[in-house]
């Protein structure tokens, strides 16, 4: 919990530059980095958030001109989200600043230990997602 609090505080500081809330920044990153345009429900499931919460954040990003609604050939009502040119530009700027922050934060740490930590966190996330799927709705 303390690590989560520190990460959220760092994110709030970094989003001051973009003017986005942490939720808006996370959703913009998700849309920009997605291999195909995601839907609100898919993002909600991936991030462990409600569809309604993601919808409100997506609507705000559309208002800001950072993402746009795209047709979804698989579903008439669940539109896909895609980044606008302005959204990509803001993401690139924010991502560059975040990379500098990350480099400063881990400077002097053992790269092998960092790799193991990342691998462990990915495995933990995978197991938590699996347990949630097994538990059902």
TrEMBL record:
One Pfam family named in its UniProt record: MarR_2
InterPro entries: HTH_MarR-typ (IPR000835), MarR/SlyA-like (IPR039422), WH-like_DNA-bd_sf (IPR036388), WH_DNA-bd_sf (IPR036390)
Entries under Gene3D superfamilies matching the protein: Winged helix-like DNA-binding domain superfamily/Winged helix DNA-binding domain (1.10.10.10)
Limits of the HTH marR-type domain: 1-130
Keyword entries, A-Z: Plasmid
GO molecular function terms noted in the UniProt entry: DNA-binding transcription factor activity
GO annotation (BP), single: response to stress
Protein name per Swiss-Prot or TrEMBL: HTH marR-type domain-containing protein
Organism: Novosphingobium resinovorum
Lineage: Bacteria, Pseudomonadati, Pseudomonadota, Alphaproteobacteria, Sphingomonadales
């Amino acid at each position: 919990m303390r690590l989560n609090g520190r990460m959220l505080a760092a994110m709030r500081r970094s989003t001051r530059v973009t003017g986005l809330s942490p939720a808006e920044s996370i959703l913009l990153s998700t849309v920009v980095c997605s291999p195909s345009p995601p839907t609100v429900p898919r993002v909600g499931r991936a991030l462990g958030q409600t569809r309604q919460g993601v919808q409100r954040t997506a609507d705000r990003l559309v208002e800001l001109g950072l993402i746009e609604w795209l047709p979804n050939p698989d579903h008439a009502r669940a539109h896909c989200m895609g980044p606008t040119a302005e959204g990509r530009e803001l993401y690139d700027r924010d991502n560059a600043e975040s990379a500098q922050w990350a480099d400063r934060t881990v400077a002097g740490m053992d790269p092998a230990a960092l790799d193991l930590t990342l691998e462990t966190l990915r495995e933990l996330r995978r197991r938590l997602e699996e347990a949630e799927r097994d538990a059902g709705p």
